[in-house]
Amino acid sequence: MKNIPTLKLIILYFLTVLLSCSNDESSENYTPSVSPVNYNLEAFPYNTLSDYNLFEGDLQNQKPVLGVIPYKPISSLFTDYAKKKRFLWMPNNTSANFVSDYEILDFPVGTILVKTFYYNNVLPSNTTKLIETRLLIKKPSGWIFSEYVWNEDQTEAFLDNTGSTVNIEWLEEGVSKSTNYRLPSESECRTCHKIGNVPFPIGVKPQNLNSAYPYPQEGAINQLQKLIIEGYLNPVDYSNVNTVVDWKDLSKPLQLRARSYLDINCAHCHSEDSHCSYRPIRLSFHDTETSEANLGICVVPDEDVNSTLTHVISPGRSERSVLSYRMNSTEESTKMPLIGRNLVDDQAISLINDWIDELTQTCE
Question: Does one domain contain both 81 and 147?
């Protein structure tokens, strides 16, 4: 009987050691269920990009923390050849709703959309350089723009909504190019990102996201399905979404590629209640599906851009088409899009000209 207390102590000791080891093991394998993003809606926008804690490790590596999901629209807006990394994040226990194929998802308050612009093969050191990171944050009053400009050391990006320019020279497929890259002001952001006077995102529509993305852990899965899995999108059948194509995919029909290009590069201005709604064309993907007039085919221009131009799109005659002329211009008063480029996208010009030259309609 005298040994019973000793036996109890021995058993208690081993239980303590066992539990301690178990706790150590579980702590090593523990994965937090709540995103570590620094969420303070009233304090947004923060002064620096790192304040949000959207990325882990070195900020310039853009490695997203838990809950920050990368995404990529099927076709991308041309911005002087800049490459882009895109991410989205939503507060815990919130989800977006599907509205329609061609409308942005109905995001909850607190959503953050992130887009970083960068160049590879920047001269003279032939390195990668991050230029800017744009944040769209949904507050109770609506979306706000937050522009973060990267420092030369590539260690931080600082809030600056005033607008500026930076000269950059790089190699694009082995060819040296340069541009006076424009970092937009808040008012410039509003020019494209608005319906009426209400700010809105552009690319996060089901028609642009209904494609596979190579996620680091799961591999390639549909982006809409990924959002559903993460609880970021309320379950919806996306199998019949009227989806754009990658306009650079030569295996797709020419007209479908052209319509997809015009949607992502031009439709945000050439739509109802948008910046260029007074123009007689509507270039969103769903508006051009059945209407030649919305595409500008045989539409007489509403201003005299050049005396040789007869129609917005003159079938079989790209050299007489306003659309081709504006896309091929870098003049401030002539170029289209108005904002976001100083260079000509030669590949896009080739696409649009090929499409126009294959049209056979006869204009009255």
Answer: yes
Name the strand (E) or helix (H) holding 64.
strand 63-64
Based on the fold, state whether residues 163 and 299 are members of the same structural domain: no
The CA distance from 103 to 204, in Å, is 8
Do residues 137 and 52 lie in contact, with contact meaning Cβ atoms separated by under 8 Å? Answer: no
Radius of gyration of the chain (CA): 25
Domain with 294 in it: 254-358
269-294 pLDDT tens trace: 877 766 666 678 889 999 999 999 99
Total number of domains in the chain = 2
Closest Cα to residue 306, out of 270, 269, 331?
331
Answer yes or no: do 71 and 129 share one domain.
yes
Residue 177 sits at the vertex; the CA angle it makes with 176 and 183, to the nearest 5 degrees, is: 145
pLDDT, average across residues 248-268: 95
Measure the CA–CA gap between 15 and 34, rounded to whole angstroms.
31
Residue-wise pLDDT for 93-140, tens only, equals 999 999 999 999 999 999 999 999 999 999 999 999 999 999 999 999
Confidence (pTM): 0.88
Rounded Cα gap, residues 104 and 201, in angstroms? 7
Predicted local confidence at residue 275, as pLDDT: 65
Same domain, 264 and 351: yes
Q: Are residues 193 and 304 in the same domain?
A: no
Taking the CA atoms of 102, 108, 109 and 113 in sequence, report the sign of the dihedral they define.
negative
Residue with tokens 């400009």: 149
Structure tokens, 83: 């490459």
